[in-house]
Specification:
- Pfam families: WD40.
- The chain is mostly beta strands.
- The chain has a domain of about 270 residues: Methylamine Dehydrogenase, Chain H.
- It has five helices and 31 strands.
- Strand 16 and strand 17 form a beta hairpin.
- The longest helix has 14 residues.
- It starts with 6 loop residues before the first helix and ends with a helix.
């Protein structure tokens, strides 16, 4: 029987995986896979499975134009594997081929929050004991009085987007619902009712510093709308309309402009005060899935696209991108920067995360090789940890990577990526696997 390397095979692997520590992964005897996959129980090694899964994924994805992609040296090691956790939650993360991500957020080097179809869970990295902090499978209603609060609440709200910052959790639903919860208070603070427009799904939520000095949040909608709210009062402030469904927005650090990307190769750079479009962001070849602004630079931002590339832009000159960074197999659905701006991580929809050294102009990168849907990326605020969410129609799992010291990063430029190569077992059943794959 042919050995399967499709998403169903990966789903089974994740469902049967077990937690793994850095010590278990590093030991020479009975070395564990970083995702806790028992390769000894399969008919192939990890390297052979990767080889043929890569071939399978490339056969189902369009290949981007390569002439302007930057040549980046792979092999650096900026973050080392620390832990793999299988979070015990009663609802699963469903994988839809619509490039959904953003279901992982970190508030400290030891705290990560994960979203599933109906729940938000808190998983402290030290204990790995998940706690459900918001369950939308039943009835949820606000417990505070605010103008415009939907006091009736919701039933069975399916989560499509989430974000966390400064104890504020904001969740978006597939029908345009919004739920705001302060993590240091019981109950829910504010609810926005479902959109009366068709295709009201919220694709992403971004909390940012408004030019007035207040903290705001903005939602990106499938209904071609970007809505702005005050994060302290939860009051609606403004609505920006675009000619296509908006998948993501990112704000400049000074709050003066934002970039909106969506179901169109072109993005838009927008003046926040007037709402006028400053310029178009042109260069991608497919729908744009993700974006992120440099945390310490008011002009540079990044966009990720279906064409398997992440482009770096300078808002002062959008006639061409500054850099074009190429992924391996799928759309670039997640982009995030460390708070000091030194590193950028970009996640593909499936199987790969790339960590770039921004300071050296993206000359080097670390490639993290996993199996499954990358459901989100998040650096801890102190830059010491990188959390990667992984699922495939399964319960959520996440990997924690810890920042290496500067000396390790520089000296390890010739090392292999974190792919957990099990060279000792590479020869096991190789000929059988080669003949069985189809």
């Amino acid at each position: 029987m042919p050995i399967q390397v499709n998403n169903e095979a990966v789903r089974r692997m994740i469902l049967s995986s077990c937690e793994t520590s850095a010590e278990e992964h590093a030991r020479e005897w009975e070395r564990k896979d970083i995702q806790g996959i028992s390769w000894d129980l399969t008919d192939c090694s990890r390297e052979r499975f990767r080889k043929y899964r890569l071939r399978h994924l490339l056969s189902t994805e369009k290949v981007p134009l390569k002439e302007d992609c930057k040549e980046t040296k792979t092999g650096a090691k900026y973050y080392s594997f620390a832990k793999y956790d299988c979070c015990s939650m009663s609802t699963e993360q469903y994988y839809e081929d619509t490039y959904n991500a953003g279901m992982v957020w970190s508030t400290s080097k030891d705290d990560v929050y994960l979203g599933t179809r109906y729940q938000i869970g808190h998983c402290p990295a030290l204990t790995s004991q998940n706690t459900t902090i918001l369950d939308l499978e039943g009835h949820v209603a606000p417990s505070e009085l605010h103008p415009g609060n939907h006091m009736g609440g919701f039933y069975m709200t399916q989560i499509s987007a989430m974000t966390i910052r400064d104890k504020l959790l904001i969740v978006g639903g597939t029908e345009g619902q919004l739920i705001c919860k302060l993590l240091d208070r019981p109950g829910v603070s504010f609810c926005v009712p479902p959109s009366c427009e068709p295709q009201g799904k919220i694709n992403a939520i971004d909390i940012y510093n408004h030019r007035s000095g207040a903290v705001h949040f903005m939602t990106s909608g499938q209904n071609c709308s970007v809505k702005d709210f005050d994060a302290e009062t939860f009051q609606f402030c403004s609505d920006f309309r675009f000619p296509w469904p908006v998948n993501h927005v990112s704000w400049s650090p000074d709050g003066k402009m934002f970039v909106a990307v969506g179901d169109d190769p072109q993005g838009k750079l927008v003046d926040a005060k007037s709402g006028m479009i400053i310029d178009s962001v042109s260069g991608h070849f497919g729908y744009t899935c993700s974006s992120a602004w440099y945390p310490n630079n008011e002009y540079n931002f990044a966009t990720g696209n279906q064409d398997r590339t992440c482009r770096i832009w300078d808002a002062r000159n959008l006639s061409t991108s500054v850099h074009v960074l190429e992924g391996n197999v799928r759309a670039i659905t997640s982009i995030c920067f460390t708070s000091d701006g030194e590193f950028m991580a970009m996640g593909e929809d499936l199987d790969y995360v790339h960590v770039y050294h921004v300071i050296d102009e993206f000359e080097t990168k670390q490639e993290i090789d996993i199996f499954g849907h990358v459901s989100g990326l998040s650096f801890s605020p102190d830059t010491n940890s990188l959390f990667i969410g992984v699922s495939m129609d399964s319960f959520p799992t996440h990997l924690k990577f810890s920042r290496c010291c500067e000396a390790d990063s520089d000296s390890d430029s010739n090392s292999n990526s974190d792919s957990d190569s099990d060279s000792d077992s590479d020869s096991k059943s190789d000929s059988k696997f080669d003949s069985d794959y189809s």
